[in-house]
Amino acid sequence: MIKNKFVVGLTGGIGSGKTTVANLFAEYGIDLVDADVIAREVVSIGSDGLKAITEHFGKAILLVDGSLDRAALRAQVFNNPQQRLWLNNLLHPMIRHQMLTQVQASTSAYVIMVAPLLFENHLDSLVNTTLVVDIAPELQISRTIQRDGVSKQQVEHILASQMIRERRVAQADNIIDNQGENELLRSQVLRLHQQYLQQAADLETDLND
């Protein structure tokens, strides 16, 4: 866990509404640290991550403007466990370092760490409590198809690569059910926001004793 900070690890499967939930917490002035955003930053133009990837895979991995061709990179690692392991060993420590840096720089009462692979990448070891946004698989599929314009087969493939719903829910300290109306979602976020404010205050009291 991160010293002197109360950190909530927010996760959920693809299409579950993690970003929507995170933004509702942000409306209460809570800082967000988003693993997906950081994952893009560590391979941006001029970054050490992009330089290392280019040296390893060659310049065919770049778009005309010099940025990372994500589709080309996916093609390189998709059916190649060795190359995928190399890429993960490069990027995961960079992402983890940036997440920790951003958490330490936070000034809100507590911090929301948004990480799709919170449990899979053992990032839950960095947080005080975990929150899973949960919806039924058929809703995940329909929402993702609608949002991203991808095929059902592609979504099912992504779902198969993520932790199964039952395991994710079993590991969660708190669960948000995102299958209902927006008002129900907002009421769940408000209840948890008040809970996390109290837990953060309790932590601060313990640290000062």
UniProtKB/TrEMBL annotation:
ATP binds at residues 15-20. One of its GO terms (molecular function) is ATP binding. GO terms for cellular component: cytoplasm. This is Dephospho-CoA kinase. It is an enzyme of class 2 (transferase). Belongs to the CoaE family. Pathway: Cofactor biosynthesis; coenzyme A biosynthesis; CoA from (R)-pantothenate: step 5/5. NCBIfam families: dephospho-CoA kinase (TIGR00152). Keywords: ATP-binding, Coenzyme A biosynthesis, Cytoplasm, Kinase, Nucleotide-binding, Transferase. The keyword RNA-binding does not apply. Its main location: cytoplasm. GO terms for biological process: coenzyme A biosynthetic process. Its EC number is 2.7.1.24. It is found in: Cytoplasm. It comes from Shewanella polaris. Catalyzes the phosphorylation of the 3'-hydroxyl group of dephosphocoenzyme A to form coenzyme A.
